[in-house]
Amino acid sequence: xxxxxxxxxxxxxxxxxxxxxxxxxxxxxxxxxxxxxxxxxxxxxxxxxxxxxxxxxxxxxxxxxxxxxxxxxxxxxxxxxxxxxxxxxxxxxxxxxxxxxxxxxxxxxxxxxxxxxxxxxxxxxxxxxxxxxxxxxxxxxxxxxx
Length: 146
Ligand code: HEC
Prior knowledge:
The protein is mostly helical.
């Protein structure tokens, strides 16, 4: 029980702070990547809420939400390609020193989104372990909290 909760708590807690995260960001490249990450955060929260029964489990909706994560994950190398910064950005400059690793981690996010299991809420919850690990693995290295 505790274990399951912890697995899905990762993306949910990440998305909790996103409401004002990019307010006032001027740099267009930074804003674009922050908005993509916001969309990923909202999608992960919705899946987490379904997994926990906060909202009804709907496999069709879950597929759409997952595809949204996949599309943004696929775009991440393009969105982050240019070294761009803004006082509000939470991106660590080490992204551009370790570019290949960052690209691999974007691909891992895509893979873990593809591996989500929509048989029922329990299966979704378990399969979100991989998704949560992809988020936190990258954030730990490349996202700094302002
Ligand atoms: C390959 C690396 C990587 C992966 C994987 C990743 N993120 Fe991020 N995320 C970042 C970086 C870097 C930032 C900071 C971007 C900036 O501020 O310029 C960020 C920022 C965010 C933000 C703040 C967005 C905003 O409004 O400014 C949220 C929410 C977020 N991530 C959620 C998630 C969730 C949920 C997952 C997994 C489903 C995930 N991320 C996977 C690198 C990643």
